[in-house]
Amino acid sequence: MEKIILDCDPGHDDAIAILLAAASPAIELLGITTVSGNHDVDHTTRNALATCAVYGIEVPVARGASRPVVADQVLAIEIHGETGLDGPVLPPATFDLDERHAVDLIVDTVMSHEPGTVTLVPVGPFTNIALAARKEPRIVDRVKGVVCMGGALTRGNITPAAEFNVYADPHAADIVLRADWEVTMFGLDLTHQAQATPELQERVRAVGGPVSTFVLDIWDFIDTTHGGLLQLAHPAIHDACCVAALIDPTIFATEKADVRVEVAGRWTTGMTVCNFERMGGMRHFGGTARDQVDFRHTVATEIDHDRFCDLIVDSVQRLTAGLG
Ligand code: BDR
Ligand code: CA
User: Fold this and answer.
1) pLDDT digits (tens, 9 = 90+) for 130-181
2) pLDDT exceeds 60 at position 291
3) Fewer CB in 10 Å around end: N or C, the chain?
């Protein structure tokens, strides 16, 4: 059983990440923490609670950072709509928000569990995770790892160089990638392979019921913005990849790498620079990182799309049957 804290900014694909975490018998969802990203933190928190209501789950949900560590705030309302989760009906919360700040929920939860048992899963800007590592540095040794959605190998989605989650708080991403823990990164080159094809949508439709409707409404809305603004054939289910990998790592091919973040590029702020061990690995990055190459991180490169889709359909079926 993988114990996880899902740090998110729901967000359409965030809601599908929550779906997999809520439904899987392989995952123990210790908490959901929210952050400013796709919308401000008030909206993402409300959307997290609404998503829990649809799925019929109750877990600690804590509101987190309302601003990036250093950078100016960037939101993605043009992708996710005026609510941050436009499309589906958003029901009222069925339980109260945790009273703690997200950073405290993360620190308390990691420190109160056995070392090496809790995985942090940031799928929004990494602000809360960076602040937690600064507030209680012992969490860096204590977690099992960090599995994140963020970054890109070839091309960004908010600038030519940068992916949204990293661009929205590059200094937080820099802290997370330089901390002495192992990060598994699901960047755009991978998550653009994780699309909600018409075949997947038909399989979810066949399940029927409110969870199926919620998921289909999510994809209906995001199809218009992903298709229009990002030129994807079908909605990308970015964030769910991280949870899928914790349920069944064999769905993904990965490579060891050293990954750095550009925090002050002229045109490249928020770019992730990946140095792959298999390709020989550059001996140094230059600048202050010279001669300190460390291939401890992992980058996901390929998905088994059929098995990823099976997992999504299975999750909708399980929650529909009340098995969350
Ligand atoms: C990431 O940015 C957000 O819009 C999505 O939820 C995902 O986490 C993709 O770049
Ligand atoms: Ca997200």
Assistant:
1) 999 999 999 999 999 999 999 999 999 999 999 999 999 999 999 999 999 9
2) no
3) N
Cα(164) to centroid of ligand 1, in Å?
6
CA distances from 192 to 79, 155, 249, 302 (A): 15, 11, 18, 10
Q: Which amino acid is at 162?
A: A
pTM (predicted TM-score):
0.96
Give how many domains the chain has, as a whole number: 1
Active site residue 238: yes
Around ligand 1, the residues with Cβ closer than 6 Å are 11, 13-14, 38, 76, 79, 123-124, 149, 157, 163-165, 238-239
Instruction: Provide the residue range defining the domain that includes 309.
Output: 2-323
Task: Report yes or no: 232 and 273 within 8 Å, Cβ to Cβ.
Answer: no
Residue range 64-106, pLDDT digits in tens: 999 999 999 999 998 889 999 999 999 999 999 999 999 999 9
216 CA distance to ligand 1 centroid (A)?
18
For residue 183, the domain's CATH number is 3.90.245.10
Q: From the alpha carbon of 149, which atom of ligand 1 is closest? A: 8
